[in-house]
Amino acid sequence: MYHSNPYIGYRHMTTPSHNQEALDNSLKLIKEVVQGSKKDELFYDYLISISPTKADKDILSSIRDDEIKHYQMLRQIYKDYTGMDIQVDEDVDFKKPASYIDGIVIALFKSFADVEKYREIRKGLPTRHQRDILFDIITDELMHSGEYNFLYTTNLVNPECPQEEGDDEEDEEEVSTNCLDSGNRTNKKTYTLEEWEKLIDPLIEEAECESCDPKEVILASLLVGSGYSPNDAFKKAACWEDDEEND
Question: How far is CA 72 from the centre of its chain?
């Protein structure tokens, strides 16, 4: 099936622990991912077309462009080993989401599923260079999950902080800071961009850690969008994972 020399045109040597069976599995998964790229592209284009604001369109367009870049990198890895291009059926249909919000939720959980698949692909790749490529792709997907969560939150949820009548601007700023710590969202004040950055930064730091559990990061991002502090969100996501393992 493969080239007599699977590393033709490829300057990076494999590691001594190279496992052909693991590589075969990675190539199989890469082919599955790339063959579904056209359907994904149609889905993103549709979601962009029904986006309610220019800001939403810009975020989703950036995500779509990242996905296209990912597919190109995966195609190249596959070709480096097999000498063949992956054929993609251009005549495909996709199921339209019931609404824009439903589409965001679908995209969020697809991002999680992709992370799991990319982690499996990464395990079977023999070279450090290729594993670094997959690590970059996984990091992008985790970033995308945060962006989906932001879109979901801004379009459906309005996390605010409690404020008593008569509070002045300084009190309002203090209450907002407390809200970031407590996760309380039964309030009147929406988050500013600076406040959102305070919430998202810990998620990004965790996502960039190679030993992180992507499922916990995504679950935590959903909880942050619902009003939890990052610390509380990670604790609750970890509890969910523990409960699932014990079932």
Answer: 18
pTM over 0.70: no
Which structure tokens are listed for 220? 């935590």
Determine the distance from the C-alpha atom of residue 57 to the mean position of all C-alpha atoms in its chain, rounded to a whole number.
Answer: 17
Cα dist. 59→143, 158, 197, 239 in Å?
11, 19, 16, 31
Q: How far apart are CA 158 and CA 190, in angstroms?
A: 7
**Which helix or strand (DSSP H or E) is residue 55 part of?**
helix 54-82
The three-state secondary structure class of 1 is coil
The predicted-structure confidence for 148-196, as pLDDT tens digits, reads as follows: 988 988 887 543 333 334 444 444 344 333 333 333 333 334 556 566 6
The model's pLDDT over 41-54, given as tens digits with 9 standing for 90+, comes to: 999 999 999 999 99
CB 78 within 8 A of CB 101: no
